[in-house]
Write a structure and sequence with these properties.
The protein is α+β, with helices and mostly antiparallel strands and 89 residues long. The protein has one helix and five strands; from the N terminus they run ββαβββ. The chain has one domain. β3 and β4 form a beta hairpin.
């Protein structure tokens, strides 16, 4: 399972959707980054493959970052989304 986290401007909590296949996650990443590069804001509508009833629509000019990460059952327990995490050790 692959998680696509979108960080929105002025919003501390990321918006996340999931894809089952790496190719689908990469295609969605490319779609989002292309919309972010566009000169005019685009409405992006996303659904989640893990929870099909989960839907979100947002404007591309409000996205400040996109992170794609693989979520496997072994690493899911102690892993925080993002590029780094602080630990107590």
């Amino acid at each position: 399972m692959y998680t696509i986290d979108l960080t929105l401007k002025f919003t501390p909590i990321p918006v996340s959707v999931q894809r089952k296949e790496a190719a689908d996650a990469e295609a969605l990443y490319q779609k989002i980054t292309s919309a972010m590069r566009a000169t005019t804001p685009e409405l992006i509508e996303l659904t989640c493959e893990k929870q099909p009833e989960k839907k979100v629509a947002l404007l591309s000019d409000q996205i400040s970052a996109v992170i794609v990460s693989e979520k496997d059952s072994a690493a899911a327990a102690g892993r925080v989304p993002g590029f780094f995490a602080l630990s107590d050790s």
